[in-house]
Amino acid sequence: MRTVVVGAGPAGLFCGLALARKGHQVVVVDRDPPPPTAGAWDRRGVMQFNLPHFFRNLVRQTLLENLPDVWGALIDAGCVPAVPEGLPEAMTGLQARRSTFEGAFWSLAGRDPALRLQTGHVDSLTMRRDRVAGVLVDGTEMEADIVIVAAGRTARLGHEHRAPGEGGSCGFSYAARMYRAREGVDPPSSALPMGAMHRGYLTIVFPQDDKTLSALFVRPSEDNLAELRRNECFETAARHVPNLAPWTDQDRFEPITDVMAGSGLSNTYRGQLDDAGRAAVAGLFYVGDAVCTTNPAAGRGVSLGLRQAAELVRLLSSAEHDYRAIAEQFDRWCSEHIRPWYEDHVYWDATLLARLNGRDIDIGAPLASDVICAAAGQDPSMMPVVGPFMGMLVPPGALKAVEEKARAVLRTGWRPTWAAGPTGEELAKMLAVPTPTR
Q: Alpha-carbon distance 356 to 416, whole Å?
């Protein structure tokens, strides 16, 4: 089948490479050029490209099951496998900058004779009656039997053919800066990002590849910490936060970027079907962030995108060529396996914002997943359920089995502890810029 994949992020490249190896004639079109042979790669079309990343164990699992040579290429490129102490190899994640991860994926895909990568802007779909006929790329028609839209969270191609999405802003904004360990200095040895919850904000340190790390502030979008976007303010704040101070000390770690702000972060979900619950256009599919986005703080995005991509490839590789039926099957699968993670994050973020603003946990209301996981530290009998959930091996609904145990922990008066460091209000005062006098 002639297949066009729109977008060469992880989900798009996965679809393109896997389908090409199953006999499809595949072109992957992306508006950004491929990685250069030397120097920085600027993916202007991907807002989160330079923000911190940690690739969960589901990324490894999905690649090894479907495209094992991609996993090998990632390791060869310097991405660092990381398994938390005491956990099985199946829980191995990957420490890497997004640029290293995608660069290795693009380079391997570009060498595959069955796949063509093309730089260009996809203007619109072309149709024959109610079937997809291809796309217009920079004004030139490219014929296709199947079009897979993997163009990210802002994808609008063919949006009129499916029902409106749900969700919106997650309520948080980011400020992050990337560092490299100076000669003779060891980078963090933690196999997982090192997070801390402070009164009014969160901080996370992400170990990455090539002795790099990213330091991140996660803050409510409506707070008074917007000055963190300035280099000098970020460094001032980081010096006063114990979770960040050792890793942003410029005598030991050299900043290699300016502060990068992340805004417009969202929890959204949008299915394959139109308002009538049917696939309006035969041969048109959506995958990755075009279906689901979640607050990046939990690092679920690439995992969910690759899971979708693997299932869509499986369905398209069947003998069935009724593309409407396949779209409806895929939509049902996403509703069962992807949508719960969106719903989990919507509730998690809403309750976390309330706590950061000083409200206590409502013990009588459903408990958010982060609270249940934290309570497992007080009642280890919850870990057989909480552990697999944290590894995304079971869906959020599995936590219902231990929610009452978490509620019992909360009734003792225990609450998740606040990390050492200034409060959000104290940071805001510290960073306040005096108004110039005339």
A: 12
